[in-house]
Amino acid sequence: MKYVIIGNGPAAVSCIDGIRSVDTDGSITVISKEAHPAYFRPLISYYLEGKSKADNIFCRDKDFYQKNRVETVLGEAVAIDKDSRIVALSSGENISYDRLCICTGSSPFVPPMKGLDTVEKRFTFLTIDDSFAIEQAITPDSRVLIIGAGLIGLKCAEGLRDRVGQVTVCDLAPRVLSSILDDECAAIVQKHLEDCGIRFSLANTADSFDGGTAHMKDGSTIDFDVLVLALGVRPNISFFKDAGGECGRAIVVDNAMKTSLENIYAAGDCVEQYDISFGDRRIMALLPNANIGGRIAGVNMAGGELLFDNAVPMNSIGFWGLHMMTAGTYSADGGARMIEEKGENTVKRFFVKDNRLIGFMIIGDVRSAGIYTNLVRSQTDLSELDFDSLIKSPNLLPFSENYRRKKLRGVV
User: Fold this and answer.
1) Is the domain of 252 the same as that of 396?
2) Mean pLDDT in each 10-residue stretch from start to end of the chain (412 residues)?
3) H/E element, 287
4) Domain range for 202
5) What is the CATH number of the domain that holds 143?
6) Strands 251-252 and 271-275
7) What are 3's strand-pairing partners?
8) Are residues 239 and 101 in the same domain?
9) Residue 26 carries which DSSP code?
10) Do 178 and 195 belong together in one domain?
11) How far apart are CA 286 and CA 84, in angstroms?
12) What is the CA 411 to chain-centroid distance, rounded?
């Protein structure tokens, strides 16, 4: 069997793990756009901050590819011939496959912006090479403007704060982390970041540029030395779509990580799959889901039978001691009931529908919050536990004795 994986991130190496857990003999070829071993993208801010060396953000040991007898090919896939089972590279090389897995992730989205070409030092922040380039561009006196107050933009701000003179973050949204936090929780995070030295210009963004000056939508200007564009990402799916594969906003996969094209699987940030907390497909571009989905794809490519039938969105992030965690669908829309628990420096919000936890949002103490994620994933009937007690203290005691026996001893 000849396995080919397009992409070389966490989903790809997990796919290799999955293949080798079933098939120790088949050949594996990885097509990589980057000249680096697979690494954890969320950790590039720690490299920029100086908390981690580049070698420490790799997903696997240096001999991982050799041990698993993986051939790596540096290049970019531009087309798939699904009938001949061939992947065409931009170099003109063709690579044949019996089973193919697409783990191409996403690329930064940069909309047309007037005068952007006049900005000498402008960067995106998605790869380790982006970190290297930004590191070379900054000085201790640099004024950095980051456009985008989402996860990518704020982690870049964290990485730069102690290495430059000033960091300003702007966003057209009226709050930070607008895709995962509500107004009150976002305000807590924003105040903490401001206390740590980050400046914000929200409900406002750059309308045009003139060299090192950004002309903002509200008529003000912001002078800067370095510009970072963190406006979002788009899945790398064009070549799959051109081959006739089913796509929504990303590549559509089933619970076995199969695509609509025969012998082709996909995993990671380039897919959309069924979210059990939401009741529909959506993109869940998160590291845990990439790891799980990649491994399941690999096992099934090699003839195994595994399903990823409990996917939910999850986020766990922190900035200078303030931690937050979200999972599932955290909105009171659609008939969900919100339950709130506030403590000293902690806000917990839980969303319950049909007597099941469908999502939560926690700012502050996130210790043991994985128990809540497990409830969302397992769709546990809350009548099996004392949920009021669990809200106050996440541990197994509020669960019924029968539930604890099943979880701790595997007893039915």
Assistant:
1) no
2) 97 98 97 94 91 88 95 96 97 97 96 95 96 96 97 96 97 95 93 97 96 96 98 95 96 98 97 94 92 97 96 92 92 82 86 94 89 90 86 69 55 38
3) helix 287-301
4) 116-231
5) 3.50.50.60
6) parallel
7) 28, 99
8) yes
9) S
10) yes
11) 33
12) 35
